[in-house]
Inverse folding.
C-alpha cells in the first residue's frame, strides 16, 4: 500500500475532491449492488460531476465519528477479553492506495501490528433493528465487502470489525482475507472505473430511490420544445423500457390488490379487537387521529404488523 493524500480535518473539501480520484472501500458495495443507500449510478455521479455536492446532513456518520475514541477503548477491552492479548490501536491519517492499482483506495479507522503484521480495524454503529444482520459470526454484506477491499489494498491477512448495536452491545468480528471475493470485487470495480468513470459513460439506473434522485438532479428541467430523435440503439432501449414499465405497472396493481385482500382478511378475523399475537408477530388495528391543519381532521383505524422477536 502507499499513502496518496494526508487527511486534514480542517479541509473537508480537499478530502472529498481527493476521493473522486479512486474507488473507496465504502463505494464497493454500491458498485456491487449491495448498498441500500447508494447505487452504481450515484457513485458514478459523485466521481464524475464537477465540484462537490452541497453538504447533506448525515447524522449516523457524524455519530460514528464522534464515537470513534469511545469505540477504540471498547475495542481494546473486548479484544483483551476474547484473545487475552493487549494491543495498541493506531491512526493512519491518509487516504491509502494499492501499490499497483492507484484507483483502489481506502481510509482506515484504526490499525494495529501483530507479530510485525499490519491489521486494519474498522468501527461500526448500528440500531437494534439491524441486530439480526450481526448475529453469530455474521456482518452485513456491504461491510464485509468494505473490509475485504481494505484487506486487498493493505495486503493484510485479516481485519477486525468492532460494532456497537443500539448503544447497548459491543462486540468484535474477525474477518479473514477472502481472495475469491477480492478477485470478484476488484474485477467489478475495475470495469466500473475504466468503462464508466474514466470513459464518462453513465451506467444504467437500477430502480433504487438514490438513482432516481441522481436522475432528478441531472435532468431537473426540460428544454422547451426539444424532441429527441433517437438513434436505432436508443429506440430499442426506449421501446423495451416502455414495455417493461407497462408490464410492471400491471403487476404492481395486482400486488396491491392482493396486499389489500390480505389486510382485509386480517381485519375480518380481528373484528373490533385492538391487538392479536400470532407466533412472533404482533398485529394491531388502532384508531389514529389526523390533525386538521390544511385538511379536514379525521380518524381512522390503522393496521400494523411487526415482528416482536
Amino acid at each position: 500500500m502507499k499513502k496518496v493524500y494526508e487527511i486534514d480535518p480542517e479541509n473537508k473539501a480537499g478530502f472529498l475532491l481527493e476521493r473522486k480520484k479512486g474507488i473507496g472501500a465504502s463505494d464497493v458495495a454500491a458498485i456491487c449492488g449491495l448498498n441500500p443507500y447508494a447505487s452504481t449510478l450515484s457513485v458514478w455521479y459523485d466521481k464524475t460531476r464537477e465540484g462537490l455536492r452541497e453538504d447533506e446532513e448525515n447524522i449516523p456518520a457524524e455519530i460514528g465519528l464522534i464515537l470513534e475514541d469511545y469505540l477504540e477503548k471498547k475495542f481494546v477491552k473486548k479484544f483483551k477479553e476474547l484473545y487475552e492479548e493487549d494491543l495498541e490501536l493506531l491512526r493512519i491519517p491518509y487516504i491509502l492506495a494499492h501499490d499497483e492499482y492507484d484507483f483502489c483506495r481506502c481510509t482506515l479507522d484504526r490499525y494495529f501490528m501483530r507479530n510485525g503484521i499490519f491489521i486494519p480495524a474498522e468501527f461500526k454503529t448500528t440500531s437494534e433493528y439491524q441486530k439480526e444482520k450481526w448475529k453469530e459470526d455474521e456482518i452485513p454484506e456491504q461491510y464485509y465487502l468494505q473490509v475485504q477491499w481494505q484487506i486487498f489494498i493493505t495486503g493484510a491477512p485479516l481485519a477486525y470489525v468492532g460494532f456497537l448495536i443500539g448503544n447497548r452491545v459491543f462486540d468484535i468480528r474477525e474477518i479473514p482475507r477472502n481472495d475469491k471475493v477480492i478477485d470478484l470485487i476488484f474485477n467489478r470495480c475495475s470495469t466500473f472505473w475504466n468503462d464508466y468513470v474514466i470513459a464518462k459513460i453513465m451506467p444504467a439506473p437500477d430502480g433504487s430511490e438514490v438513482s432516481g434522485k441522481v436522475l432528478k438532479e441531472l435532468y431537473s428541467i426540460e428544454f422547451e420544445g426539444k424532441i429527441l430523435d433517437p438513434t436505432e440503439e436508443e429506440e430499442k432501449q426506449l421501446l423495451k423500457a416502455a414495455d417493461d414499465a407497462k408490464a410492471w405497472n400491471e403487476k404492481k396493481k395486482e400486488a396491491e390488490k392482493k396486499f389489500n385482500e390480505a389486510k382485509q382478511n386480517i381485519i375480518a378475523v380481528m373484528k373490533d379487537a385492538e391487538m392479536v399475537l400470532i407466533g412472533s408477530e404482533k398485529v394491531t388495528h388502532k384508531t389514529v387521529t389526523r390533525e386538521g391543519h390544511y385538511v379536514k381532521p379525521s380518524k381512522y383505524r390503522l393496521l400494523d404488523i411487526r415482528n416482536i422477536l
Summary: The chain has a mean pLDDT of 90. Strands lie at 2-6, 94-97, 105-106, 110-114, 117-126, 158-165, 169-176, 275-278, 281-290, 298-307.
